[in-house]
Write a structure and sequence with these properties.
This protein has 272 residues and is α/β, with parallel strands linked by helices. The protein has eight helices and 14 strands. Helix content is 25%, strand content 32%. The strands form three sheets. The protein has a seven-stranded mixed β-sheet, with helices on both faces.
């Protein structure tokens, strides 16, 4: 089969067309004919950083975590899927798992799901990793009805999904962005848009929460933006946030007066 493979890592590394043996179904797995894939930040980080990132595949490497396609072969023990099913998932491109930049892909049946009939293959392939990230953040933060949620970076890949899921869970959502296109998109997803370039944090916190702060702040920007996240938070709020290299961690803010916060176990493990 044809693949797009890397024979080196680094910012200047290029993908080359290569012939690779077609995978065969193994127990618990299916073989997909790949119809579409997408590029996530982690894919570009693996390409640029290689062995400096854990779980980067050995060279030559076939990247691509997200995929959508049609099942060609079903391995022993797989239930709920059949040849010809259209599926999508986040199922490769790490460690010893061949990625989706190929004609065919071996995928663990636990990492795929039936493709929604209303989505094209291209749209479905763009959803898995950002959808998983948004859901994990909101679910672990306990987002529910009657909460006020701020999504930092609401027009981004994770952010625009987080807006929709938070609203589905019953929350009232505000999201930051800038420029007409981003702010219009945020409003279209059902959130109140805030232009972070022109609106002061204290002003939109006062307008959207009567000065109490947001119950949950989902910070998809991370880094230096965490300072803004703290400023927008209510007492005992929860913050799913990104830190390099794009790892989702959590902290519970305890006191706006003292600036103390209670880091999650993941934060503590990373020395944050």
């Amino acid at each position: 089969m044809k693949t797009m493979a890397l024979t080196d890592y680094g910012p200047d590394a290029t993908f080359t067309l290569a012939d690779t043996p077609r995978p065969e179904a193994t127990p618990g797995h299916v073989v997909l004919r790949v119809k579409a894939t997408s590029i996530n930040t982690i894919d570009t980080m693996i390409k640029d950083m290689g062995a400096d990132l854990p779980l980067s595949p050995a060279l030559p490497a076939v990247l691509g975590m997200d995929c959508a396609g049609v099942i060609e072969e079903v391995g022993a023990g797989v239930t709920g899927f059949a040849v010809g099913d259209e599926v999508y998932g986040c199922a490769g491109g790490l460690a010893d798992l061949q990625g989706a930049l190929a004609e065919f892909m071996l995928a663990d049946a636990r990492l795929i799901a039936p493709k929604p009939k209303t989505l094209s293959m291209r749209a479905a392939a763009a959803l898995p990793l950002v959808g998983i990230t948004a859901w994990e953040g909101l679910h672990r933060a306990g987002v529910g009805a009657d909460q006020k949620v701020l999504v930092q970076g609401g027009a981004g890949g994770v952010g625009h999904i987080a807006i929709q899921l938070a609203r589905h869970l019953g929350a009232t959502v505000t999201a930051t962005g800038t420029g007409t296109a981003q702010l219009s998109a945020i409003q279209g997803f059902g959130a109140t848009p805030v232009d972070f370039m022109t609106e002061r944090i204290d002003d939109y916190v006062a307008a959207q929460t009567a000065g109490a702060g947001f119950d949950v702040v989902f910070d998809t920007v991370g880094g230096a933006n965490l300072t803004n996240t703290f400023a927008a938070a209510a007492l005992n709020w929860t913050c799913p946030a990104f830190v390099p290299p794009q790892v989702l961690v959590y902290a519970t803010y305890r006191s706006k007066a003292t600036g103390l916060f209670q880091p999650s176990a993941e934060c503590r493990r990373r020395g944050l």
